[in-house]
Specification:
By secondary structure, this protein is α/β, with parallel strands linked by helices. 49% of the residues lie in helices and 15% in strands. It has 2 domains: 22-124 and 231-289, 3-Layer(aba) Sandwich (D-Maltodextrin-Binding Protein, domain 2); 127-221, D-Maltodextrin-Binding Protein, domain 2 (3-Layer(aba) Sandwich), CATH 3.40.190. The strands form 3 sheets. The protein has a 5-stranded mixed sheet with strand order 7-6-8-5-9. Strands 3-10-4 form a 3-stranded antiparallel sheet. Strands 1-2 form a two-stranded parallel ribbon.
């Protein structure tokens, strides 16, 4: 009898969980503040425009984990970057044309993965090769090519994904002929700028929309050989959800083209440098820009 009761109880939980999931959209994000902001934007927009409940599953490590969570149905959507989708997920060589990359990603995600790729949110979050402003002024550095002669004396700090991905470290140092003083330090993305400020490293690969770039004396070196592909932010949605909830797709569509590079950087700055609550940052953005 006890086993029967437990079995029935477990079945009840499973059924109720399934019923609950019918009216719930699960939004995921990678494990850095910009991604949490983007996830919160999706969540608040869906809550405002539909009658669905939104569950937030943020800070799910990197690209691979988020992508696998999406395929497994553990999340229903998250924001990805087109260059990352093309190279890290689809395993295709980098391309330079933003529209061409978007079209290719959208087509192949639908064909291979049964996922929909919604229109770009408006900003391009490329890798930013960053040095201390004082060093850049002292050596008159403006481009990555100019930095090559100094790099043998520099310690580098990069994130794990940058070291591993096909559009990351290996191709980058080969393209620019860079050599560093020892192996690069692999660091959490949130620690890169602290290490740069503390002179623990001399060059890092951040992102062009990082809020820290507004609040510190850093210089972003120009990618003058155009190594990095476009990284337009797009929402990836499980096709099942897109078909079942067209109102969700319509809500996301309202965000298309609404987030500029500077807007994303400013929201990152508020969340990281000013320690504002992400929920409040996003509410202010949506209220001022969309409602």
């Amino acid at each position: 009898m006890r086993c029967l009761i437990l079995t029935c109880f477990a079945a009840l939980i499973l059924v109720s969980g399934c019923v609950s999931r019918q009216d719930t959209i699960v939004v995921g994000s990678k494990n850095f503040p910009e991604q949490a902001i983007l996830g919160e934007i999706l969540a608040q927009q869906i809550e405002a425009k539909t009658k669905l409940h939104v569950e937030r599953r943020f800070y799910l490590a990197g690209t691979y984990i988020c992508h696998q969570a999406l395929l497994a149905g553990r999340i229903d959507m998250y924001v990805e970057y087109t260059g990352t989708a093309l190279t890290a997920v689809l395993k295709e060589p980098p391309q330079k044309d933003p529209q061409g990359v978007f079209d290719r990603v959208r087509r192949e995600y639908a064909r291979r993965l049964n996922l929909t790729v919604e229109p770009p949110l408006g900003f391009n979050d490329s890798f930013a090769i960053v040095v201390r402003g004082q060093d850049a002024r002292q050596d008159q550095l403006h481009t990555v090519s100019q930095a090559a002669q100094y790099s043998p004396n520099w310690r580098a700090g990069f994130g794990y994904e940058f070291m591993e991905r096909p559009d990351g470290y290996d191709g980058f140092v080969k393209t620019y002929g860079l050599k560093f003083a020892g192996e690069p330090r692999i660091m959490d993305l949130n620690l890169l700028y602290r290490a740069l400020t503390a002179h623990q490293v001399d060059i890092v690969a951040g992102n062009t929309t990082d809020g820290q770039l507004l609040s510190n004396d850093f210089t972003v070196l120009e990618d003058d050989r155009h190594y990095f592909p476009p990284y337009q932010a797009v929402t990836i949605v499980r096709r099942e959800i897109a078909k079942k909830h067209p109102d969700v797709v319509a809500a996301i569509a309202e965000l298309s083209g609404k987030i500029s590079d500077s807007t994303m950087q400013h929201m990152n700055y508020e969340a990281i440098a000013q320690h504002k609550d992400i929920t409040a940052v996003v509410h202010e953005f949506l209220t001022s820009r969309l409602r």
